Amino acid sequence: MPYYAALLHMLDPEKNKEVLPRHIAYLDQLDQQGKIYGRGPFADGSGGMVIYIADTFEEAREMAQQDPHVVENVRRLELKEWKLWKT
Model-level pTM? Predict the structure, then answer.
């Protein structure tokens, strides 16, 4: 199954504090469905990343665009297919 990296670039740090609980709840829900490989903020505070597990780019884009951070213009979405190399 393909992986998709959603880079969430910070646009509004103040509004981020308000929307963060909804963002986490949304991702928790997807995580329980097996749709998240990993997630977390960047250490420098510039945003974060979510690795979605999806059948298609379109499915991943739909999930990423429904994230409250994206819906409420707190963070700018950049979505790319990600190749996982295991050693």
Answer: 0.92
